[in-house]
């Protein structure tokens, strides 16, 4: 998914900029641990990048990306939402929050049911382009998703097909 790759690239860029600014020469995982001690001090892209630098001791996945029920991952996944979010210029307020939530779901999709994650995944390109669905649009999207089969949930990826 192109939109997801775009987010991944922005996480890498945020991490590199943060590491340069911090002037830390040490290992990524040491810096990541510092970030995760208090996510509220950092931008969400830095926090999400930090999570990818660490492995979960319990399940072996990237921290926070393991299966639901892995306590350490559940905790890390919840903790990530304490991070800061700053809207980019010229987007509706809340756009950054929507991107953050949608990309967290898309990047740890195995933690969600196909029906739960579909709306986030199809919305991501629209959000990255600076859009923000109204409540009515979000409800309409959900209503459509509820009519899709399991197979359709995996194949419908373009927001144009759902957001009308
Ligand atoms: Zn885990």
Can you offer a commentary on this structure?
The chain is mainly alpha-helical. It has a domain at 1-84. 60% of the residues lie in helices and 0% in strands. It contains 9 helices and no strands. The longest helix is centred in the N-terminal third of the chain and has 21 residues, at 2-22. The two termini are 21 Å apart. The protein binds zinc ion.
Mean pLDDT: 91
Shape: globular
Heterogens: zinc ion
The number of distinct β-strands equals 0
The portion of residues forming beta strands comes to under 5%
Separation, N- and C-terminal Cα atoms: 21 Å
Quick summary:
This protein has 164 residues and is an all-alpha fold.
Keywords:
binds zinc ion, 60% helix, mainly alpha, globular, 164 residues
Detail the topology: elements first, then pairings:
Layout: H1 2-22, H2 28-37, H3 44-52, H4 71-79, H5 95-107, H6 114-128, H7 135-145, H8 150-155, H9 159-162
Helix pairs in contact: 1-3, 2-3, 5-6
């Amino acid at each position: 998914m192109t939109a997801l790759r775009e987010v991944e690239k922005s996480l890498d860029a945020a991490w590199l900029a943060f590491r340069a600014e911090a002037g830390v020469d040490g290992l990524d995982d040491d810096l990541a641990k510092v970030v995760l001690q208090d996510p509220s001090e950092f931008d969400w892209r830095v926090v999400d990048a930090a999570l990818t630098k660490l492995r979960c001791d319990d399940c072996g996945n990237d921290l926070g990306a393991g299966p639901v029920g892995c306590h350490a991952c559940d905790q890390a996944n919840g903790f990530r939402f304490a991070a800061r979010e700053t809207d980019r210029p010229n987007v509706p307020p809340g756009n950054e929050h929507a991107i953050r939530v949608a990309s967290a779901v898309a990047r740890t999709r195995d933690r969600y049911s196909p029906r739960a994650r579909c709306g986030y995944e199809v919305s991501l390109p629209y959000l990255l382009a600076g859009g923000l669905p109204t409540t009515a649009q979000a409800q309409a999207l959900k209503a459509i998703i509820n009519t899709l089969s399991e197979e359709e949930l995996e194949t419908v990826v373009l927001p144009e097909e759902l957001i009308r």
